[in-house]
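User: Round two. Same drill as before: sequence, then structure, for each protein.

Assistant: Same drill it is. First protein:
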Amino acid sequence: MSMNYANIKYYDIANGPGVRTSVFVSGCRHHCPGCFNAVAWDFAYGQPFDKTVRNEIFASCQPDYIAGLSLLGGEPFEPENQRELLPFVRNFKALYPAKTVWCYSGYTWEQLTGKEPSPARCEVTDELLALLDVLVDGRFVQAEHDISLRFRGSRNQRLLDVPKSLAAGQPVWWEDEKVRRFDPLSHRCAMPAPPKGGALFVLTGRCKKLPLRGSWLRTS
């Protein structure tokens, strides 16, 4: 059975640094209370993650202003999903070696690396994990929810630098001082409103119309 996906967000700025393409896979066994995407718990939800969809994602990441790919869910590290994602991520890294891959998982680093028993471990886990740049690990915990956190929903979750963590043999936090938390009160695009049918993405500098979907991006 092939993997389904629940949603694809192009020009996403919420799930990793820069402008990204984010893929929300279907299927999750965690069932965290307060989950923002509970509809994607069902493995049968959504549409097939077929070759046409994969190629559309690859094409969306071609522009230089796209920083990379983010994998969410659902749960990307359910064994069924890992087996589908491994060749996809492998091809992505071959096409775009300079772009980053982020992955959000309810499983912890210790569970995925086999230091703690976990049903997530399968024959492809080690290779898929090694292809990632950053892993955001841990279940969403409603009591730990904090809207001020960057790129994560609850305080128990960690942003882990995967290459450094693998090299060190223990979790190493991801750090990038060049990426700062967005303050909507002090960083506004110099436009009264986004164009009709478009979305307003605010980073730093001036506004520029993107070549796709009439969106706007501050680029300098």
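Second protein:
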Amino acid sequence: MTSIGAGDNPILTGGIPVTGKRLANFEESGVQTPSMDAEIRNAQGEKLDYSFHAADSNSPFTVIIGHGVTANKDREFVEALANGLALAGIPALRFSFSGNGNSEGSFEDSCITKEVEDLGAVIDAVHGAGRRIVYVGHSMGGAVGVKRAAMDDRIELLVSLAGMVHTKKFAEVEFGEETPESGFMWGKEDCPLSQNFVDDMNSIGTVMGLAGSVKVPWLLVHGTVDDVVPIEESREIFELANEPKELFVIENCDHVFDPETDADALPAMVAKVSDWLMPQVMPGLEVNVVEEDIDTPPAD
């Protein structure tokens, strides 16, 4: 668990500049800097690793960010998003699902069903601290978000980044040539393909049918050259989603907003999520949004 203070909030991750948006001209008397240092454990008692990004604002919301399959909270674009949100005055918490990153648990037990429960444990902690909830999920973490939002009204705003919709199809396309219990996900030896994962993906099949059960504002962000989760999946579920909803398409953007594919993709994603959230998570607050190009040397 790490905590990044509002005064020490970096805007660069791995040397990649992100155009910052900061708040100005709001009453200092209403400003507070929420903190988060509680230990979070899931239903199995496994400790979930997280990083909290504090922000100087009077927003009652905290954005919880969940990653995709074989990933963790320290993916470059996940950290960049959390930094950008905190700069905009929105506290953010990025965490690793159990069995991933530095969270406790076995990777072989990782699956959407368990991760929905993990997310519930994080929401318990954040909501229990008096905060309102936004959830941002990437890839499989997007499917986790749809399932959780459909059953948990504590999620008041939902964002899907390259969100997975057809889980059974994903497992077949990406891992169909691997043998469960002996093969690996994308050749990563620390990410063994378990029968539990395959069975769970097949059992869920798709989260398309849950679109109508998501009753909160929903932003879907997807790149046109995503070859892991095709953009068509976001377009399909968007058609079934309730209003208010928005599909934001980033041209020439891949699955992980990689600047080597398009240098503008990551800043575009961070800016869009921040812009979409700000008027909703700071109700009644008159703000002046100031564009800042942060000229900071690349990290070592």
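Residues 44 and 227 are 34 Å apart (CA to CA).

User: Perfect.
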